[in-house]
């Protein structure tokens, strides 16, 4: 049961005044050919036009116009931010997004139906470096690391692009090396995807594993490459079940 071993993250509620800002897509990461058309990783340049006054945003709002109704109000879509307040270049001028392109395939014909594709994800994935987009946020509750106790245990569970906010947390724990925060606990990340070649931020996470073996564990569930103990596909819940005794021990 996930309920018996999932370690809840600290949730804190904050009020923010929403403001609409223009962001520039300044660059794109190099993606493996097998999933470059499915997932896009963006760095959004805001040049200090917005204050990241939390340790890590849990979500942002990306706005795009309804293509079927030109001039109609913008739709709102939420995307997790995959960086901390300092951004990927540690200058406080960028924020990163990890976006999966939402496409629809007709079950009868097996062909893609562009009229039913996700509006905002395709808008973002089709954008090019230098394009200007509008973003506002954050929205709702914000997840913060409990920095009053940097030696606690975190168990993080994600599938696909759901790893985005955890990437921000891990950068703060293991990359930023700030004088006022030194992580000394254990972070255990479980990630579930179909194949090895669609693992996101895999090189980055493996470097943490190499550099911080006492503070980081990284386990992957590859549904099309691994089998669970019953001989079926390996999903993230199956991988967690493999370590149920350890995860329960960690939390007691």
Structure commentary:
The chain is of the alpha+beta class. Helix content is 18%, strand content 25%. It is built from 6 helices and 11 strands. Strands 5-4-7-2-3-6 form a 6-stranded antiparallel sheet, covered by helices on one side. Strands 9-10-11 form a 3-stranded parallel sheet, with helices on both faces. A two-stranded antiparallel sheet has the order 1-8.
Main pleated-sheet profile: 6 strands, antiparallel
Helix content: 10-25%
Number of strands: 11
Rough outline: globular
Order of helices and strands: HEEEEEEHEEEHEHEHH
Structural class: alpha+beta
Work out the helix count.
6
Residue-averaged pLDDT = 76
Residues in β-strands, percent: 25-35%
Low-confidence stretches: 1-21, 53-61
Radius of gyration computed on alpha carbons? 19 Å
Strand arrangement in the largest pleated sheet: 5-4-7-2-3-6
For the termini, the CA-CA separation is: 16 Å
Give me a quick take on this structure:
Its cofactor is FAD. InterPro entries: Flavoprot_Pyr_Nucl_cyt_Rdtase (IPR001709), FNR (IPR015701), FNR_nucleotide-bd (IPR039261), OxRdtase_FAD/NAD-bd (IPR001433), Riboflavin_synthase-like_b-brl (IPR017938). The protein is an alpha+beta fold.
